[in-house]
Amino acid sequence: MMRIEPIAGRYGHIEIEGRPHRIYWEEAGEGIPLLCLHTAGADGRQWRALLNDPEIARHYRVIAYDMPRHGKSSPAPGTVDEDYRLTADGYVAQVLAICDALELEAPVVMGCSIGGRVVLHLAERHPERFRALIGLQSGAAVPPYYDTAWLHRPDVHGGEVCGAFAYGLTAPTSPEAERDETRWHYMQGGPGVFRGDLYYYTVDGDFRDRVAGIDVSKCPIHLLTGEYDYSCSPQDTRALAEALGIEWTLMPGLGHFPMSENPPAFLAHIRPVLDRIRGA
Q1: Are 47 and 37 spatial neighbours (Cβ–Cβ below 8 Å)?
Q2: CB atoms near residue 216 (< 10 Å)
Q3: For 47-55, what is the mean pLDDT?
Q4: Which residues in 42-79 are b (16+ Cβ under 10 Å) and which e?
Q5: Are strands 32-37 and 8-16 parallel, antiparallel or unpaired?
Q6: Which 3 state secondary structure label does DSSP give 126?
Q7: Is the pLDDT of residue 155 over 90?
Q8: Model confidence over 72-107: pLDDT tens digits?
Q9: What one-character-per-residue DSSP string does 165-205 give?
């Protein structure tokens, strides 16, 4: 018999930085708003396990949107041929626009990779707007460790090379079917989107000189990182946590995409965090 998942998908017309956008999001559950930010070059499908978890859905309205140009969200009209580059200011404006459009009151925001970086910018600039912030694979900076030009070249299959990079960041202990689905999302990305996101991750979003500007008493921050990650290593997250003066969680056997590459293992780590936030 067919099993139907309790996830609802919708489109909304939202203005972001003065431009109209047609944005797609999926949601499930009721209660405290939990806005989930996907990784560079991917889309909201990475959060399917969270959206499908009945325990979390009893207390949280889980929302996972596709960033503009990602997944089912379109580029702003007239921008298809622009050289896309995600910036810190643009990313923060995007998240705030989504929160405003969906009328999310004191939401929890959880992001992974670039999403784990932007929670730092949100904590610095707008801590009063959030109940809590959760960073997965979150570090203050990452040095460029490969030539991102390979991600968008006319003589290279963009989808396959993006998928290969993503697959290499998953843990060898994660289930093969979930690792395959994770890289499949990357293989479907638009031209230049992954590379454009990495501009924020490696250049414009560098947060090393700004960590001291975060006051964790204004908004709780929770950090969780998988052990199999050379993009944001456990050492990177440890250094960030120490600079912020907070605890962090190492997730054994997980890589750069914990929520999608091994959902059961990830849920075991994130449920207690969400319980603490709800009880605070």
Answers
A1: no
A2: 13
A3: 97
A4: bbbbbbbbbbbbeebbebbbbbbbbbbbbbbbbbbeee
A5: unpaired
A6: coil
A7: no
A8: 999 999 999 999 999 999 999 999 999 999 999 999
A9: HHHHTS-TTS-HHHHHHHHHHHHTPPTTHHHHHHHIIIIIT
